[in-house]
Amino acid sequence: MADTKKKTGDIPFPTIESYGKDPAAIPGTDILKDAASLTDAYDFVKIKKRLAKKLDPKRYEHSMGVAYTAAALAMAYGEDMIKAYTAGVLHDCAKCLDDEERDECCKKYNVELTQIEKDHPFLIHAKLGAVLAKEKYGVDDPEILSAIRWHTTGRPDMTMLEAIIFSADFIEPNRKPLICLPKIRSIIFSDMDMALCLILEQTLVHLEHKGQAIDEYSMQAAEYYRKKINER
Ligand SMILES: [Fe+2]
Ligand SMILES: [Fe+2]
Question: Residue 168: nearest ligand to its CA?
Answer without folding.
Answer: 2
